[in-house]
Amino acid sequence: MKKRVAVLISGRGSNMTALIEACKDPAYPAEIVAVISNKPDAAGLEVARSHGIEAVAVPQKDYPSRAAHEEAINAALARIAPDVICLAGYMRLMSAEFVGKWEGRMINIHPSLLPLFKGLDSHARVLESGMRVHGCTVHFVTAEMDGGPIIAQGVVPVKPGDTEDTLSARVLKVEHKLYPLALKLVAEGKVRMVNGGIVYSGLIEDDKTSFGAF
Question: Which residues are known catalytic residues?
Fold first, then answer.
């Protein structure tokens, strides 16, 4: 049985699209059953619909508080009954209560080599720091922003003359490879969150060699 996946987005959903493409492989262990956005005009909603995937907007502006909005998101998720939730450019901080409800079943991709450069503007901060490597991280979501246990990382070089645009484009290509890999490992049960940490089990050599640079 393929794991049921719900994807949360706020914009165009390029990582969502990468996951959709990965799920087209009959051997892939997950299927995307719904996409939810906190913004009704998110371009990714139409992308999802074009692939025959249920796409739902739950606009945050329609609710008087974050708690009320999260209650509506939770209601949508309860109806969908996902095994895994993937955040793909979901630009909304979540409460500890919401995260706790889905802990161990919700993953996120962040454009830095965590625990470095949490939060926004990671590409600019990497360039300002003078670091020679950059990348992206898929992690389990916890109450600490970008602080959950790490599932997988991909590394790219920072090249002389890089700008935010050139560096972010290089990282995004890696994100589109890394996220499907990480979801696959989670869906297969090869990576689990246990007591706030990561447990790996049943990894084969192909899995182990997929964690490095692309």
Answer: 110
